[in-house]
Structure formats: C-alpha cells, structure tokens
UniProtKB/TrEMBL annotation:
PANTHER family: FLAVIN REDUCTASE-RELATED (PTHR15020), UPF0659 PROTEIN YMR090W (PTHR15020:SF50). Residues 53-258 form the NAD(P)-binding domain. Residues 13-28 have a biased composition (Low complexity). It comes from the Eukaryota. Pfam families: NAD_binding_10. Residues 1-28 are annotated as: Disordered. This is NAD(P)-binding domain-containing protein.
Length: 300
C-alpha cells in the first residue's frame, strides 16, 4: 500500500526535540534535498487557508490562531452565523457556507486558497449529529473525499486532522470505536489525500480534551489553555493512545502548515505534562524533524 511507505514508515516515538527512537537520521544530502524541495511550498502569513470545520472544536482554535498570526482564513462551515459569532468581523475572515457532502458548495470555498486544514468530523457512535445523513461515512469518507477532490492541485499544504487507530482498527479499543467505520473511513481519506499528489500533513490524535468552546469569542479562544499538559509527543507510527489537547493539536496544525519538516508526513500526537513548544516555530520544526521516517527497508 502506498501509505505504508509514505505515511507510516517510522519506527518509534519522538522524544520532545529529539530524534525518533531507532529512526535512521537523514543523510546531510537528503536533508538538503528535502529542504530545497519543499521550502517553496510552506504557507506564510498573508496566505489564505481554508479551515473546514471552522466552528468545531479543533477548527475554531486553528481559525483563531491563524487570524492572530496574519493569515487570511476562509471558514468553511454549515453555520456561517456561528462563524461570525465566534470570530466577529475580523477583516481577514471570510465565512464560506458549505457542506462537504455537497461538492457544488465546495467549489467557491476552495477557489484560490493556498492551503486547507480539514478539521471536520462527527461522533463515532449514533447521535443527534448523524441526523440528516451525516454519519461517519458521509462526513469522514464522502465529505473529506469531496474536499480533497475540490482542492486546487496548486495547494501548498493540506493538513488533515484524522485519528489515532486508523492503522489498528482491528485492535482493542479501536475495534470498538470503529463499530460504525469511523477509523476505516478516515484511513481511506488519508489514502485519497496521499494519492492526490497534494502536499499533505496528517495529524492523528486520540481522545481530544479542552473544548469545543461554545460561548467563546476570538479573544477568549486565544486565551484558552491546556493547563500543564502543553508538551507534545509525536510519533511517525500509529502507536499512541494518550489524550491530546485540542489547543495543542490546533497549534500543531498551524505549525505544520508552515513547516517544511511536516510535509508528506503522518504524526500521531498526544499532549503530556510540560511546558511544550508553545508557539515557537523552530521548536515545532525540530519536533517534526525528529520524527524521521525509518530508512528504506526498515521493519515497523
Ligand atoms: N473527539 C475526539 O476525541 C476525537 C478523537 C480523535 C480524532 N478526532 C477527530 O479530530 C477532528 C476534530 O475533532 P473535534 O471533536 O474538535 O471536532 P468537532 O467539534 O466534532 O467539529 C467537527 C466539525 O465538522 C463539521 N462538519 C461535520 N459534518 C460536516 C459536513 N458535512 N460539512 C461541513 N462540515 C461538517 C462540523 O460543523 P457543524 O458545526 O456545521 O456541525 C464541526 O465544525 C475530527 O476529524 C475528529 O473526527 C476527534
């Protein structure tokens, strides 16, 4: 499978700021090649980022952080009114009403954007949120597939917040979580993104904490904290199962947009006690780089 080589070819967790245990370091020549190849593609302030699921838990924090840092945000949501409530009339915000199940509603939303951050999702088990035919298949497979298909091929980056367990859906506890297919569908969308040729980053959190925030505005959102759990653990493999703060995952998504080191990579992510990299781009780049995929031929 293409993804086994390109998406998940690592060999261990990454210590904060260090190299993945057992992962072969990239040769100097390979590192130089990699840097030159992707530097031109990183997203910079002033660029336009489409955030899908901008009013949801991770998406609302991604949107707030991007706006604070000078990016233009197109907020794809089924509830444009909610986007205005959350983010006010920020000059760099354009709500784009759309439903990922409806390709026609995505065309205008994606036109001219430089990057996409997909934070859409629904519940793993039947709930009110499935009403109207919006279960995991429709959201995580068809909806995300439509977004990938609609995205301009000139995108600098597509950051996809997916899930831990996508490569372990037959193992406990993931087998339970996957009873209605959420992990299978997310995995299929990961593969569609990889195969699209669009530069991508996959973020795979397990249980999310902190948020969604229902009564926050932009300034309050930016002040939300994850308490003491601000350190991030990344892994190139689908082998984490600890909790992840939505604030830390949102920061990872924003940093991944701008980090050459995160291009074409999958990161399992959790947040643990510690000060963490905060908003320091160099510290994040070091953490992404530390999760080097294993050398060709290495066993997982
Ligand atoms: N919750 C967890 O513990 C957990 C664990 C692992 C991975 N994840 C994944 O992490 C991501 C973020 O999770 P979250 O809990 O922060 O998200 P969330 O609060 O559930 O928000 C999901 C967003 O998706 C949007 N959405 C759903 N269906 C849509 C559609 N058909 N068209 C357009 N937008 C649609 C929702 O918009 P509306 O406001 O219009 O409904 C909402 O903004 C998701 O991919 C989720 O599956 C979550």
């Amino acid at each position: 499978m293409i993804s086994q080589q390109r998406v998940a070819g690592g060999s261990g967790r990454c210590a904060a700021g260090g190299r993945a245990r057992g992962a072969a370091p990239l040769s100097a020549a390979r590192q130089r090649t990699r840097t030159v190849r992707v530097r031109a593609g990183v997203v910079v302030p002033g660029d336009t980022v489409l955030v899908a699921g901008a009013t949801g838990g991770v998406g609302q924090i991604v949107t707030a952080k991007l706006l604070e840092r000078g990016y233009k945000v197109r907020a794809l949501t089924r509830r444009a009114g909610r986007a205005r409530e959350l983010f006010g009339d920020h000059p760099n915000l354009t709500p784009a009403e759309g439903d990922c199940r409806d390709p026609a509603s995505l065309a205008a939303a994606v036109a001219g954007v430089d990057a996409v951050c997909c934070c859409t999702g629904t519940t793993a088990f039947p709930s009110k949120r499935w009403q109207g035919g919006n279960g995991p298949r429709e959201t995580d497979l068809e909806g995300t597939g439509n977004l990938i298909a609609a995205a301009p091929r000139s995108l600098k980056r597509f950051v996809f917040v997916t899930s831990a367990g996508v490569e372990r859906e037959g193992e406990f506890p993931w087998i339970v979580l996957n009873a209605f297919g959420v992990l299978t569908f997310k995995r299929q969308s990961e593969l569609a993104l990889v195969q699209s040729g669009i530069p991508y980053t996959l973020l795979r959190p397990s249980r999310l904490t902190d948020g969604p925030y229902t009564s926050y505005d932009l300034n309050t959102l930016l002040k939300a904290t994850s308490g003491g759990k601000r350190e991030v653990v990344l892994s190139p493999n689908d082998d984490l199962k600890g909790q992840a703060s939505r604030i830390v995952v949102a920061e990872a998504a924003v940093q991944a947009l701008a980090a050459a080191e995160a291009e074409g990579r999958a990161f399992a992510i959790e947040s643990v006690e510690g000060a963490g990299p905060g908003e320091d781009a160099a510290a994040w780049a070091a953490r992404f780089a530390a999760c080097a995929p294993a050398a060709a031929g290495a066993r997982r």
